Amino acid sequence: MKVEIDMGMTSGGTAAMLDLEELLATRLLVQGNSGSGKSHLLRRLLEQSAPWVQQCVIDPEGDFVTLADAFGHVVVDGARTEAELTRIAGRIRQHRVSVVLDLEGLDVEQQMRCAAAFLGGLFDAERDFWYPMLVIVDEAQLFAPAVGGEVADDARKVSLGAMTNLMCRGRKRGLAGVIATQRLAKLAKNVAAEASNFLMGRTFLDIDMARAADLLGMERRQAEMFRDLQRGHFVALGPALSRRPLPIKIGTVETSARSTSPRLTPLPDQQADPRDLIFTPGPDEPVAPVRRAAPPAPVPTADIIAQLSRPRPAEEPPAQPLFPELEDAERQAAIDAILAEILEDPEASFRTVAVLYQDFLVRCRIRRVGGEPVPLAAFRRLLAVARAGVETGEPDDGAWAQALALSASLADEVQGVFLVVARAAVDRAPCPSDAALARAYGTHSLGRARRLLTYFEERGLVVLRVDFHGKRVVAFPDLGCETAPGDPNAPDHTERSAAE
What we know:
- The chain is an alpha/beta fold.
- Helices cover 40% and strands 14% of the residues.
- The chain has helices at 20-26, 38-49, 67-71, 82-95, 108-123, 140-143, 153-169, 189-192, 206-215, 274-279, 301-309, 328-344, 353-366, 376-387, 398-407, 412-426, 434-441, 446-458, 493-499, and strands at residues 4-10, 15-19, 28-31, 54-59, 74-77, 99-102, 133-137, 175-181, 197-200, 233-238, 242-250, 463-466, 472-476, 481-482.
- The strands form two sheets. It has an eleven-stranded mixed β-sheet with strand order 2-1-11-10-9-3-8-7-4-6-5. Strands 12-13-14 form a three-stranded antiparallel β-sheet, covered by helices on one side.
- The two termini are 56 Å apart.
């Protein structure tokens, strides 16, 4: 069933219709400077689509809580723990309740963490509850910034990861992202690039106008038109809106925001003396006692000269470590041995990196491996190399060194699989089976392992082929080598030996 909602009027005087089912599949990006009418546009979209689809609004300013009275949205206060928000999000998907996540009153870092936990709960819902849902994120540049700001790195990473999941992988889970931002230059490109529908409003900066024109397929000289757009006027493009750039004017809305734009009002006539009004406390105003610190007692000149003439105390010798420090080679050998011990457990592949990292740190303390602890990012890399069956101290030939360099361009969670296959190619060993690749990826799903090989091929890193015996061969054009034929359906030798 095709459902269209009325967003307003086109420049030709006809109704501007938005295909709701197409929007659920292709997502929407709204851009416009402050005062261009973005919130009005989102409110129109929410009101028109409320009878047809479940909605969730990530509201950093508390402007959309007024939807609760008119359309039955439940307001979720963001001043909760992240675990609570994650559980609430799961129940929202289960019971198909439209909600507004009110983040007003929280600082930016708290807003990012709360939004990430809430979006994570929506994303990780059970498959039985993957019903269609519009997820509207206002001021998306706060939650998916293009560059790091004053917030903590971990808060920015979890928030950006949640927004990336929403826009890149949310469609299969029924989540249709609708993001609004004041400036495209402040929004992470991998988040903005996943939208196929665009509504571009008034903007003044050249870099934002150029990006808006590029997204709409317009020439650079046409970008000047974005400066002349009136409030509530947007240029629409996308499969859910129009196949060509189409100027539209957003229609009226039933509800209004709690906060409105400031308007000029005349100053009041002051009957009393203004100085009395501001310097004299009112009758109901509590008067706090004024406490002035006593001035410090003057120090005699002789005491100052005596202090300056005293000899400087000798510096304390640096504290000696309780246990002798290991040499670099010994320390690296100990780290390799600990990684090998961890991977000997057949279930280690199916535990999260965070759990393995904590186990690694505990084993390092037991072995008296001193020095700075290995950071989490470096541990991921070491773990991926160890899963490929290579010790850090081994000399790298040219092909393997190039394989390590190629793997650095991939996401952390898939580097291990890539290196396992690359190691087999460098050693001319048979291609690993789907079960072995699934173990390297940390999953029991063989389908996911096969899709990773397809992903590597789409990135141009490998070429897959099947020989006349039905065995798989993976070639690495950049390395100049390929694996020997291997049976993709063979059992995982690691699991089989562990069972024996």
